[in-house]
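Model it.
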Amino acid sequence: MPTFPISADARLHYEVDDFTDPWREPATVLMLHGNAESGLAWYGWVPSLSRHYKIVRPDMRGFGASTPMPRDFPWTLDIIIDDYARLMDSLGIRRFHLVGAKIGGTIARAFAARRPERVMTLTVVGTPPPLRAGAAERVPELTAAFEREGVEPWARETMGSRLGSTFPAAGVEWWIQFMGRTAVSTQIGFMKTIACADIRADVPKIRCPTLVITTDGSGLASVEETRAWQQQIPNSTLVVLPGNSYHVAATHAERCAAETLDFLARNKATEAA
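Modeled.
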């Protein structure tokens, strides 16, 4: 199980998938998962993407098989971005395509704005607005619930809007249990910081080609609200898929992967820059 030390007492777990032709030197795609997930969340994307690109799927610090974070850990976007940048340095990868889903898309947007020399293209899928209204106000209530019950009841309560009305019941239960395994100490610290992050100043600074994917019935934001911030990014494209899920990276995995492959093919020149 590959891991990378992010501090003296914490390690970042990651997976590398590369099924490209062995005589090629493929570009790399770094994939950033959402809240209460791990790199396993990209299971529906890996088969098609890894045939064309080297895929790096880390578990964010605190999540998945990475070391849990204490309740009082001083979370910031820059700390998470630095974790990922250092991981890619350790793998000898200077520049890469960046893909993020849900809050991973928030981190990815900040990454592209703050480390433009590292990011060739950006794809964000089912991601929140740059500032999510009401998120900070709910933190005390959520913290108390996590302390009493753990993470799974919250995952169960919110999974309907996350996966929409047509996702198979067995899949819904899988996602509930998958997210419910998150350490309470990690979740409490993350929800009151990164889940409430304000990246409004970052979005207009993104200069790489950018693809934004959402659904026409997303509970995170309307298409118009998503388009409002997407249009602040030069050379960006919005793709709207039918459905009422907001975790579109999970519910529309194959379609999102196909859209991303097409987008990367259109921007192949960035790999030579």
